[in-house]
Amino acid sequence: QVQLVESGGGLVQPGGSRRLSCAASRISFKLYNMSWYRQAPGEQRELVATITNAGGTNYADSVKGRFTISRDNAENMLYLQMNSLKSEDTAVYYCYAQYGMVYWGKGTLVTVSA
């Protein structure tokens, strides 16, 4: 079974930084387009950032210039570097893989609060 496991969530002060990781296993990782989604309490899940299997990236307007998505195909790892965090970034962040089949991680909670 495919497995996506997020890590790096926790409590961060406004203006602070956090790096999320997603470890993929039992998957031909380099073939997959990878994304980070997030879901705040009472809100719909939203796409935060995507990195394609060719390395192209795109970001939600709300995080553009603050977040950076990257991948390490040799290590089957996906990352999200989050800078200048705001309270509205508080959410459960999910790793997502797509290549015909799609897979979700279980999520990691990021709380931005003083």
| Average predicted confidence as pLDDT | 97
The helix fraction, in percent, is under 10%
Uncertain residue ranges: none
Number-wise, the strands total: 11
Question: Cα-atom Rg, whole angstroms?
Answer: 13 Å
Secondary-structure element order, as H and E? Answer: EEEEEEEEEEE
Shape: globular
Separation of the first and last Cα atoms? 39 Å
Beta-strand content bin = over 45%
Count of helical regions: 0
Report the major sheet. 7 strands, mixed
SS-based class? mainly beta
Question: How are the SSEs placed, and which strands pair?
Answer:
Layout: E1 3-7, E2 10-12, E3 18-25, E4 33-39, E5 46-51, E6 57-59, E7 67-72, E8 77-82, E9 91-99, E10 101-104, E11 108-112
Task: List the main descriptive attributes of the protein structure presented here.
114 residues, 4-stranded antiparallel beta sheet, 11 strands, 54% strand
Structure, explained:
It is a single chain. The chain is mainly beta and 114 residues long. 0% of the residues lie in helices and 54% in strands. A hairpin with a 4-residue loop joins strand 7 and strand 8. The radius of gyration is 13 Å and the shape is globular. The termini are far apart. The mean pLDDT is 97.
Quick structural gist:
Helices cover 0% and strands 54% of the residues. The chain is mainly beta and 114 residues long.
